[in-house]
Write a structure and sequence with these properties.
This protein has about 100 residues and is of the alpha+beta class. It folds into 2 domains: about 50 residues, no CATH class; about 50 residues, no CATH class. The radius of gyration is 16 Å and the shape is flat.
Length: about 100
């Protein structure tokens, strides 16, 4: 929000973004943020919405790790926001894989 003069202007920019998604398009959005969910609600019925949450992770003296139910991967990135970005990228890749 630090580049927008007001909250309303900030929110309006994202509302404009979702309104210009082409019919049949997809919005991948972070479901862990109330404001983002509000923006996603502006999508038309002909837009597929894919919510995501923060990817599982943990940090210890050895480093920062992504974690799933059956695997742990050491990462060179860190922080919750990066784990959210990782989850969004995963959803985008899964969507592209389905499209062939």
């Amino acid at each position: 929000m630090n580049v927008f003069p007001t909250y309303e202007n900030y929110f309006e920019q994202f509302k404009i973004f979702v309104e210009i998604i082409s019919p049949g398009g997809t919005l991948i959005y972070f479901d862990g943020d109330t404001e983002v969910r509000k923006v996603a609600a502006f999508c038309g019925e002909n837009i597929k919405k894919i919510p995501y949450k923060t990817h599982g992770y943990f940090q210890n003296k050895a480093g920062f790790f992504a974690a799933t139910h059956n695997r742990v991967v050491a990462l060179k990135i860190f922080g919750e926001h990066n784990m959210q970005n990782l989850a969004a990228a995963r959803e985008a890749c899964l969507l592209l894989d389905k499209r062939g």
